[in-house]
Amino acid sequence: MGIPTGSGKRIASLDGLRGLAAMSVVGEHAMLVFPVFWAAFAARSWGAFDGPTWVGVVAFTPLKIFWSGGAAVSIFFVLSGAVLSLPFHGGKTIGIGKYALKRMVRLYPVYFVGLLSAYILYQIVGDTNDPQTSAWFQRNWHVDIDTRDWARALLFMKSDFLQLNSPLWSIIHEARISILFPALMFAYRRNRFLTLSGSLAISACAIIFRLKFPNAGSDIANLSDTVSVVWLFMAGAWIAESRERIESAFEYVSAAPAFLLILVTILLLTAGFITPSPFYVSYFTTRGGAILAVVLAISGHKAFNFLESRKNDWLGYVSYSLYSCHFPIIYCVVKLADWTPLYVSVLAGCAIALIAALILCRTIEAWSLRASQAFRFDKTASSALQEADVASPLSIGS
Question: Which percentage of the chain shows pLDDT scores above 90?
Answer without folding.
Answer: 70
